[in-house]
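In the present case, backbone shapes were mapped to integers, as reproduced here:
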Amino acid sequence: MLLDWIIALIAIFGAVLLAATMSNDNFSRALGVAVVIALLLYEPVLVSYTGGTLGHYFTNLRVVDARNDGNISFPKACARVAIKGLLGLYSFVTLAATRRNQAVHDLLTGSTVQIRDPAKASPGQYVTERAEPPAANMPSGLRRVVVIFVYLLLMFVVDAVITAGSLSPACIDSNFCSAGERIVSVAAGIMLLVLAALTIALGWQGRLFGARKAP
């Protein structure tokens, strides 16, 4: 993701520099539209036709269809990008709970991220597929999902209350925050993300009160 962001920033700043050099409103407008379209299509086109973006390629990764290990379709690639963009980092909280280590955008589009070339990968870069706990010992999937949702809802409510008590009204309402308040806000966001990931992982494994697996 970092490599793809760098590529996007290079494209944006390159376009701004070119537009400033040309000093032509029509050219600048057309260039801006072209850059926006290119950035929107960058990941869906590359993922559906080559199995990954440049960031995927340079880190030896490939996005594949979970059913046949081929490339996912262009509509699925578009949906995958949209879900990931909508949820942000929260889309990755299911990695620790799913059998094939899938993020939310992978689960909803039936895709997985795999090693592109096994010969170039070290053993430490592999994450093995998880074994599902015996169904007889586990609460139903629906019950686990409901319990996880309740825990997450309570967690977000508590976080909102604590954050509201720690930040000034100007920071909350108008985003005029001091350096200390920004640090508190970022730290709270990271903590919430980590706790959400743990909650989903533990809940799906039947280790949360309310949906525990049988001894």
In short: The two ends are 41 Å apart (CA to CA). Residues 2-125 form one domain. The longest helix spans residues 25-50. Residues 144 and 159 are 22 Å apart (CA to CA).
